[in-house]
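Study this chain:
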Amino acid sequence: MTTVNDLKEALKYLEDKPIFERQLEFASLITDFFKNKGITPIVVGGLSVEIYTRNDYHTHDIDFVSDGWNLFDELLTNQLGFERTEREWYHVETEIAVEVPSNHLEGNPDLVFELTLPNGKKLYVIGVEDIIIHRIEGIAFTIKFPEDDEDYEWAYRMFLIHKDDMDLKYLVERAKQTKIFNLIEHWFY
């Protein structure tokens, strides 16, 4: 069970670690801390892309979908010394940023991936199928040539890395529901 004191100690020893390792370890400790409160944060956004691309993609923050926003605010701001901006909390010394943009997972909870880190703690990560959909959906209707966008490239890379292990039927169904299947249809041939 991770305590506030464990989190404070972690912020000290994480300062010298590479940013990806820092983010993963801190995210796993936060997950363990909130698990004891009946809350299961799920990693989404850029860090999930970084996980699924095996650290090829790089993000500056940890995005969680989680209940308990006020508990995050209390812990990060009042107990751990993070500075709060409008959308995120930032720890200056470790350069760790945390955001909780929603309490609703836009995806299939059955596809959430459980990742156990070397510290023995767990992370829960949005399914690769859903993060692929999110990346493409975010550009499909806002730019003229979505296939030229870097988010499209990252989605395709995740597809190539994980296509043998993912639920392709679900990916196709979600792509059709979100009206982006035309952008990925050729991936399957």
The helical segments are 4-13, 19-35, 45-52, 69-79, 128-140, 150-162, 168-177, 181-184. The chain has a mean pLDDT of 96. The radius of gyration is 17 Å.
